[in-house]
Amino acid sequence: MTEPMSQPQVITASREIDAPAATVFELVADPAQHASWDGNDNVVQLVRGGRVRATGEIFAMRTTKGNVRDNRVVAFEEGRLIAWRPGDDGGEPAGHEWRWEVEPLGEGRCRATHTYDWRELTDERRRARAESTTERNLSASLDKLAQRAEAAGGTPQA
C-alpha cells in the first residue's frame, strides 16, 4: 500500500506590483480592506480592531461561513512585513499563519510575497481547508491586491 502524497504545508506566491510599497502595505495592514482583495473567498468584513501597527495586536474578521476569527499579529515591520495567526473568536491561534512581505523595487514598484504556513496547525476542523489552499489561491489574492493598489494611482489607501 502506498502512502498518499503529503500536501505542501508552506505555500508561497509572489508578484511585482506597479504601485509603491507603502500603498500595497497599507491595504494589507488595514483589515477593513481584506475582503476587497481576498482571493480565498474567505473573509467578509472586519468585526473588531483596526489598522495593524504592532506585533501582539488582534483583529477579528467574519468569514463567508459566518464565523468570527481572531487574528493575532505575530510579526510586524511597518511597510515591509505582517503575519497573523487565526483562531476562534476569543480563542488561541490554531497554528496556521498568513504572512505578507512587501519589498520596494524602485520608483512606484514593489514585490509582494504572500505565504500560508500550516505546519503547526492543531485544529483538525481546519485541516481540509488548509490542504486545499494552493499557490493559485495566494496568487488570486496578490492579483486582486495589485488591482486595488494600481487603481489607487500610488496613493496609500487609508
From TrEMBL:
Compositionally biased residues, Basic and acidic residues: 125-134
Region annotation (Disordered) ranges: 125-158
Transmembrane segments: none
Gene3D superfamilies associated with the record: 3.30.530.20
Protein name, per record: Polyketide cyclase
Annotated source species: Janibacter melonis
